[in-house]
């Protein structure tokens, strides 16, 4: 998954303004105790991060 696709999905689910806030502030155990931004900076695959967000935040199937 390209980063542009990842951020588009984040914006679709959370809204444009909250997507970045969530990615910066919400620590997820599925990401090894990191935020989305930290996981991306560590080189984690955007698709795996999106899957973690989907599980953590119960993202509806049509957005997965």
Find the count of extended strands (DSSP E, 2+ residues): 0
Low-confidence stretches: none
Q: Hey, roughly how much beta strand do the residues contain?
A: under 5%
Question: What form results from the Cα inertia axes?
Answer: globular
Secondary structure category: mainly alpha
Nearest-integer average pLDDT: 94
Cα-to-Cα separation, first versus last residue: 12 Å
Radius of gyration: 10 Å
User: How would a textbook summarize the main sheet?
Assistant: none
Reading the helices and strands in chain order gives: HHHH
> What level of helicity do the residues show?
55-70%
Count of helix runs: 4
Question: Would you mind describing this structure in some detail?
Answer:
This protein is mostly helical. It contains 4 helices and no strands. The chain has helices spanning 3-14, 16-25, 36-41, 46-57. It is globular and about 25 Å long. The chain starts with a helix and ends in a 7-residue tail after the last helix.
């Amino acid at each position: 998954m390209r980063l542009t696709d990842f951020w588009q999905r984040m914006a679709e689910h959370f809204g444009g303004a909250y997507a970045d806030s969530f990615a910066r502030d919400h620590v997820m155990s599925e990401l090894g105790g990191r935020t989305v931004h930290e996981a991306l900076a560590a080189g984690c695959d955007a698709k795996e991060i999106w899957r973690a967000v989907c599980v953590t935040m119960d993202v509806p199937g049509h957005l997965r």
